[in-house]
Write a structure and sequence with these properties.
about 35 residues, mainly alpha
Length: about 35
Amino acid sequence: MSVKSIRGAIDISENTSKAILEATKKLLLEIKEKTI
């Protein structure tokens, strides 16, 4: 693997974890709103 492809894989994994965090936050907010 070249350095560029490794960096690209790291960027993708970081973006994926950020997307998962955002989705989790939205889900938690929706659950809170429904329970109130």
